[in-house]
Specification:
single chain; 9-stranded mixed β-sheet; 503 residues; 21 strands; 16 helices; alpha/beta; 5-stranded mixed β-sheet; elongated
Length: 503
């Protein structure tokens, strides 16, 4: 084994048989350029890595060059594809699957790393453990001298900018391997913009990145580069059109050799305080029209034997009870801590027991939206409310660039500042650092707490305008039907909570 120099980072890393970084190099018929790319990796100041060269069925001296390099450096692995894929997506996925490290760096065969490339990115990753990807800047070289060489600075990490343009190159990044696997790697249905597509899906999945403001890569413009091989479609104005629309793609690759391990798993909680007839209608409509599998738990405040017995008789429905009415917030927290936490769920749905589901495939549509963007907390359009028909007013967030209404894929969404709690669906990650205040009022306050926390933690509130639920009997009908029960359920005045928290 060739000797390797290990320079310490801010945290000392001890050389082991397991590399800390896998550098995936994809190549096709560029033996000379490939040699320079590999050399730039070998000369890194940080040396705990493996090099995985994926050859997309080259017909030149690529194999001969790599095998000669392997004789002197057994950290190089070589994969030669039997058939040419024609672009980088499948070869990169091959390299990701063959990698042994928890962190993956990528290098195209016509680019080179500067000597501190890996060291600088690893240091940034250590200093920012809450991000899943770090990336640097690059120096662009015009090989034929037809243009001005110079720096190409990346933007600071901002998912909204990715909706309009890509500002990160794959040769600039260091990313967690597990994240690549969870996203399905590169979308193999795309001949162009597969890197942009990956970063858009990375952002939609709720992952975070950090820019390292250092020039770490040399990027070469030349006649044979991939960008010149795959021409863009051209629009009416003569400008190139992308081969994918950022707002339409889902978080998982449309086509990939990386096998998908799981589909989103959903847990639903319904909280009830008497009114068993309403609960029965909620459960019946929920199951009949969901269009997607889910696990269901019913929590009963001040439970009676009749209520507990009925829930226990429902196949596949979990139950927990309180002898007294401890309020909705405590029931939500119990559900998260005792039923959801550590159970591999992806989506949590919270419903009142007077919520009747009107739209077919209501849950399938929520899951589809989740797969397009995992930063939404959503509610269906709510019919039958007394004060806010359809739900809270759709006002948008102009300071965040969020309009009053917008399409996300096929879903038409309205954006409020606050969202009611008749039915709410959210990524389970929302609860990682949040619990409801159990000392507040018994009813009506949890929606304000959730809405406030959502905006503080980067989630977006949205009503799904094409998915409908009904507040049973309408607000006025419930009061007319049973005034005593209605008044009791309203005993927590949201105005008082609003004033207390300056909402």
């Amino acid at each position: 084994m060739a000797p390797r120099l290990l320079l310490p980072l801010s945290l000392e890393i001890i050389m082991t048989e397991q590399p800390l970084v896998s550098v995936v190099v994809t190549t096709f018929n560029r033996a000379k350029r490939l040699k320079n790319a590999i050399k730039s990796i070998q000369e890194q100041t940080f040396q705990n890595f493996e090099i995985i060269v994926v050859d997309d069925a080259s017909t030149d001296d690529t194999e001969k060059v790599v095998k000669k390099l392997q004789q002197k450096d057994d950290h190089i692995k070589y994969i030669k594809r039997k058939e040419n894929w024609g672009c980088h997506s499948r070869p990169k996925n091959d390299g990701i699957l063959a990698s042994n490290a928890k962190l993956v760096a990528l290098l195209d065969d016509d680019n080179t790393y500067r000597k501190d490339h890996l060291q600088a990115l690893l240091k940034a990753k250590e200093q920012n453990p809450d991000v899943q990807m770090v990336y640097g800047d690059r120096w662009q070289k015009i090989e034929d001298g037809s243009g001005q060489s110079g720096p190409a600075f990346s933007s600071e990490w901002h998912p909204m900018i990715l909706q309009y343009k890509n500002y990160i190159d794959t040769s600039d990044i260091l990313i967690e391997k597990q994240v690549l696997l969870d996203l399905g790697g590169f979308d193999e249905s795309l001949k162009k913009f597969a890197d942009w597509n990956l970063f858009v899906r990375f952002a939609k999945a709720g992952y975070r990145a950090k820019r390292v403001p250092l020039i770490l890569t040399d990027y070469t413009f030349h006649a044979g580069m991939a960008q010149l091989k795959h021409k863009s479609l051209v629009g009416p104005d003569g400008q190139p059109l992308p081969t994918f629309q950022p707002h339409e793609c889902k978080t998982y690759a449309k086509k990939s050799i990386i096998e998908r391990k799981k589909f989103p798993k959903v847990a639903i909680l319904t909280v009830m305080w008497h009114r068993l007839d309403y609960t029965k209608r909620t459960v019946e409509s929920m199951k009949a029209k969901a269009g997607y599998d889910f696990d269901h738990v019913i929590a009963i405040n001040e439970a009676t034997k009749e209520e507990s017995d009925w829930v226990s008789s429902q196949k596949g429905v979990g139950l927990f009870t309180e002898e007294e009415n401890v309020g909705v917030p405590k029931m939500y927290n119990r559900f998260i801590d005792e039923f959801v936490k550590g159970k591999d769920y992806d989506i949590v749905v919270l419903t009142d027991n007077d919520c009747e589901f009107m739209s077919e495939d209501w849950l399938a549509k929520i899951v589809d939206l989740y797969e397009r963007n995992k930063k939404f907390i959503v509610s269906p359009y709510v019919e039958g409310l007394r004060d806010n028909p359809g739900g809270s007013p759709r006002v948008g967030h102009q300071n965040l660039g969020i309009p009053q209404y917008a399409y996300v894929g096929k879903h038409f969404l309205g954006f409020p500042h606050h969202m009611g709690n008749i039915c709410q669906a959210m990524p389970v990650g929302f609860w990682d650092n949040f619990r409801l205040d159990e000392n507040t009022f018994k009813h009506g306050t949890q929606s304000f707490q959730i809405s406030k926390a959502a905006m503080e933690h980067g989630f977006v509130l949205a009503y799904m305008e094409q998915v409908k639920v009904e507040h049973m009997d309408t607000t006025a009908g419930q009061k007319e039907k049973d005034p005593k029960a209605f008044d009791a359920s309203q005993n927590a005045k949201t105005e008082k909570y609003e004033s207390k928290h300056n909402i």
